[in-house]
Amino acid sequence: MKSYEVNFDGLVGPTHNYGGLSYGNVASQSNSQQSSNPKEAALQGLQKMKALMDMGFVQGVLAPQERPDVAALRNLGFSGSDAQVIQQAAQQAMPLLVASCSASSMWVANAATVSPSADTADGRVHFTAANLNCKYHRSIEHPTTSRVLGAMFADPQHFAHHAALPAVAQFGDEGAANHTRFCREYGEAGVEFFVFGRSAFDTRYPAPQKYPARQTLEASQAVARLHGLKDDGVVYGQQNPAVIDAGVFHNDVIAVGNGEVLFYHEDAFLNTEQMLGELQAKLSKLGGNFQSVCVPRALVSVEDAVRSYLFNSQLLTRADGSMLLIVPEECRANERVWHYLQGLTASGGLIREVKVFDLKQSMQNGGGPACLRLRVALNETELAAVNPGVIMTAPLYDTLTQWVHKHYRDSLRESDLADPQLLLECRTALDELTQILKLGAVYPFQIN
């Protein structure tokens, strides 16, 4: 049976703004308070989705969230009508209003961790929504994320959904941004690679000193247990605390994997050789041939990697078996990174082609191509069981493009977030979107 790795890209929401909310994310903090363009951001994301579809990849769409999150503001003591809640928050606690308006759900690499049926004990595809408890503006996402994923992958015969882990520091979970999977074929058993920044209970593991390590070892282990993964099919690796302190807030900012290949920076991990050896040994037992491509610090510094988001790229396998790297425009603008990439593709090695996409609106808020997609490996039967409304087609692309032009603003500044009309615009747009994507009622305003 044929299998696919489907990329479900996050659709940028109508309240896309530069709030500078993500401490440890250099791009997010550097562009704080700038004017954003939600319409351009959504269109840039859609163009990438269509381009991958046109290349022959199966491409899906993951809906954004309702923002501002009025219910979250009510939980923090604001009261009255929706408009009054927004106005009170703007007057008394503007940072809370900004957080409640964040469109960060666009980066669906953080939506969940996904294990394909070939790896799990019950033979179903498992999803665990990420609690994202390190940052308040993201910690409020998982209830809606769970409902949206449940509407996309609804058939209990094929799909299993788990609630987010306890929202405490010991189980900080950032989803697939710290998880990848190696396999010979997408439909065959593979090795799932969980990367953590610290241990909550074991002091033998060093921790960063400047920025928080968002993923704990204990959270990764809990997800592996929930998904029914075998010990022989799991490897845990620790992120280098020094690169976290350099702005590498998730592993997908310093490494990316696909198929049998790991593309990573020399300084990405601790105990790298031991970790690579374990990956190789476990994949070999499954008939695979693990291979790694290490980018030396002498050619690309960690600073250049963070600035360009070289590793926050999509590593894709074409039909002929060759590999393609999808990178943001910032990689071409960085002389050292672009020189490295030209040499990489000219060498005739594993990665044969690089394609560049303009994702400036997302990049300025700290998210590149890899942040925008959640990968789900599916066999033909499972793919047929996915809600067909969320699979990208040429007509759906045209419909969503028209929808964005109809509902999104060209410019958004922090002061605009205090306008109650923005909430009405968002709800109107999302109500229409759920009909386009055939999701049913997934947003609080549709349910309550």
Question: Short description, anyone?
Answer:
The protein is α/β, with parallel strands linked by helices. Helix content is 35%, strand content 17%. Strands 2-1-15 form a three-stranded mixed beta sheet, with helices on both faces.
Structure notes:
The chain has 448 residues and is α/β, with parallel strands linked by helices. It has one domain: L-arginine/glycine Amidinotransferase, Chain A (5-stranded Propeller). 35% of the residues lie in helices and 17% in strands. It has 18 helices and 15 strands. The strands form five sheets. Strands 2-1-15 form a three-stranded mixed beta sheet, with helices on both faces. It has a three-stranded mixed beta sheet with strand order 3-4-5, covered by helices on one side. Strands 6-7-8 form a three-stranded mixed beta sheet, with helices on both faces. Helix 2 packs antiparallel against helix 16 and helix 4 crosses helix 5 (94-100). The protein is globular and about 60 Å long.
Task: Supply the CATH superfamily name.
Answer: Succinylarginine dihydrolase
Q: What is the level-2 CATH architecture name?
A: 5-stranded Propeller
In one word, what is the shape? globular
Average pLDDT metric: 94
User: What is the percent of helical residues?
Assistant: 25-40%
Distance between the termini: 42 Å
Radius of gyration: 21 Å
Biggest beta-sheet profile: 3 strands, mixed
Helix/sheet category: alpha/beta
Under CATH, the topology is which? Answer: L-arginine/glycine Amidinotransferase, Chain A
Q: What is the number of domains? A: 1
Strands, total number: 15
The proportion of residues in beta strands is 15-25%
